[in-house]
Specification:
By secondary structure, this protein is an alpha/beta fold. The protein has a 4-stranded mixed β-sheet with strand order 3-2-1-4, with helices on both faces. Strand 2 and strand 3 form a beta hairpin.
């Protein structure tokens, strides 16, 4: 999903309009993805490689039957039993490697990686990325600590609305749920610009109610949307 120049302009205009009625500051970030989650896929592949070959044996797989590499010959006396055990171990190792690689190949599909990644991990990584952006753009150093970040992670299918300390002292965090829902709705419709504009309007309404504009009311943070 991409943000067009028109989307950027609309979001910037919405931020400027909202901030006319408040001393708060709003900033928007659109992230294509915050993580590839390959560490999670490696965990799934390793677990599958350890477990699935073992489960195949009770289901009827006989590792010693896979002797094509030895042209079907087998040993028949106890002194050579070690070679049979070696063959079994070798076949098991090959099955483990094949399973590991197969799971990784399936993980090449981004949607599969997302589905196999626990929501708690995706939530934490998106939250951490949003907090990094909050700090990177100076939303934590506004005069009255009234900065708000509206953050969407496209490939991760998650959004975050983060408000600074000054806002938390007066506004319950639950009030941002409507703004987050509006952004999610826009992302689902493949209309991220609409989602951001609506989220900005809703956040601006909350800020205007609790933080009216000051006499000088400087613009402490640029009115724009950033893509990362």
């Amino acid at each position: 999903m991409k943000m067009s120049p028109q989307d950027h302009a609309r979001v910037a205009e919405a931020i400027a309009a909202a901030e006319k009625a408040t001393s708060g500051e709003i900033f928007c970030v659109f992230a294509r993805r915050v993580s590839g989650y390959w560490d999670v896929m490696l965990g799934w592949a390793a677990a599958a490689a350890l477990i699935l070959p073992l489960l195949a044996i009770p289901l009827g797989l006989d590792p010693t039957a896979l002797r094509s590499v030895s042209h079907g010959w087998s040993v028949g006396h106890a002194a050579a039993a070690g070679s049979e055990a070696g063959m079994t171990i070798a076949v098991h190792a090959v099955l483990q490697l094949a399973t590991f690689l197969a799971v990784l190949m399936v993980g090449l599909v981004p949607a599969v990686r997302r589905l196999l990644t626990p929501s708690s991990i995706r939530r934490d990584r998106v939250r951490r990325a949003a907090l990094n952006q909050f700090l990177a753009h100076g939303l934590h150093v506004t005069e009255a600590r009234t900065g708000v970040l509206i953050f969407a992670a496209d490939a991760d299918h998650r959004v975050e609305v983060i408000a600074d300390k000054g806002i938390h002292e007066k506004v319950d965090e639950a009030v941002w749920a409507e703004a987050a829902a509006a952004l999610v709705a826009g992302m689902k419709r493949k209309a991220p610009g609409d989602g951001f504009v609506r989220a900005v309007e809703l956040c601006g309404g909350v800020l205007a109610e609790h933080f009216p504009p000051r006499a000088d009311n400087p613009n402490e943070v640029a009115d724009k949307l950033v893509e990362i």
